[in-house]
Amino acid sequence: MRSIDRVRNVIAGRPVDHLPAQPMLMMFASKHAGIEFIDYTKDGRLMAEAQLKIVEDYDLDCLLTCSDPAREVIDIAGDGSIDWFSDQGPAINEERAALTDKSRLKTFTVPDPMGGGRMHDRIKSIEIMYRHVLGEISIVGWIEGPLALAAELRGINNIMLDFMQDPPFVDDLLDFCAEVAIRYATPQIEAGADTIGMSDAAASVIGPKLYARFLQPRQKRVLAAIKEKHPAAITRLHMCGNTDVLIPKMKELPVDIFELDFPADLVKARANLGPDKIISGNVSTVYDLLEGTPESVYEATRRCHEVSGKMHIVNSGCEVSPLTPPENLKALMRYAKEHQP
Predict the structure, then answer these.
(1) What is the full per-residue pLDDT of the chain (341 aa) written as tens digits?
(2) What is the tally of structural domains in the chain?
(3) Gap between the Cα atoms of 107 and 119, Å rounded
(4) Residues 6 or more apart in contact with residue 78 via CB below 8 angstroms
(5) E strand or H helix at 45, and its extent?
(6) In what order do the strands lie in the sheet with 312-313?
(7) How many C-beta neighbours within 10 Å does residue 174 have?
């Protein structure tokens, strides 16, 4: 069975030969390919090379284009807020956040994803991947969620204070960030991505009231726009950390795959999401994949499958550390190959 069919069949509740597996591999993939991660983030050709190699060597069910939090930021506001490192991705320096001066938001425009910047680089990577796999393997494009991008532009501490001190500014910033996400999704799909993953990593640090008031409506706008324009596209939502209290509102989103980090309570998540939503992830990237043994990883993957039921995609809770023993990742993959939904 083709990898992409395996994923689509699980989403539709149809039979598959075995569970699909889509672990979040970025730095691990780069290391496996012998590529410095900073080069992986800067050159879509190298990202494609690393992803194609890790998929071939580990028999994964997706090529992942998530890499770092600075693609949209740099195309919107330049790289003045970015710190670069030798073997890790670019990072946001909050002391130099692009929106330290909030009035600068009025000067921002939604960037052209095909304009030759870092957003375009991801699209070029997708094009390379698609030429190699021709629809056989799922390609996961990526967008920053509205709060993730807002925090990257404003600074995480500043945006948290803004929720209390300047709600109208938060509304304007989240609306802008939602428009960036909507515009970025389409060219990735047109380049060959069958799935759009959206990361809203900062969401787990706000409570359910702020989530319902500010963020969930913008997430819904982005995801609904993708579904409206590209009905066949798969949507995948990732929010790092413990999202237990947000799930009652998250389940209203037009999401095909809910990717849950390992701090989330999987039993509560399944109860809140209901039996028909796809749950992916929840295997601990620290206690199991990084620090555990192949046996403990296999058992952790089994527990996640048992709780999630047939609507399940095997996945790590978040990004797999590059220091993860390869045999532990192989154990996660082995469980997927040996089990059906």
Answers:
(1) 999 999 999 999 999 999 999 999 999 999 999 999 999 999 999 999 999 999 999 999 999 999 999 999 999 999 999 999 988 899 999 999 999 999 999 999 999 999 999 999 999 999 999 999 999 999 999 999 999 999 999 999 999 999 999 999 999 999 999 999 999 999 999 999 999 999 998 899 999 999 999 999 999 999 999 999 999 999 999 999 999 999 999 999 999 999 999 999 999 999 999 999 999 999 999 999 999 999 999 999 999 999 999 999 999 999 999 999 999 999 999 999 999 99
(2) 1
(3) 19
(4) 98
(5) helix 44-58
(6) 63-64, 139-144, 195-199, 234-239, 257-260, 278-281, 312-313
(7) 22
Residue with the two structure tokens 């939904």: 341
Quote the distance between the C-alpha of residue 154 and its chain's center. Answer: 21
Residue 243: which domain range?
Answer: 3-338
Please give the model's pTM, rounded to 2 decimal places. Answer: 0.97
Provide the CATH number for the domain around residue 272. Answer: 3.20.20.210
Contact predicate 21/313, CB 8 Å = yes
139/243 Cα distance (integer angstroms): 26
Give the three-class secondary structure for 120: helix
Q: Which of 215, 217, 237, 223 is nearest to 281 (CA)?
A: 237
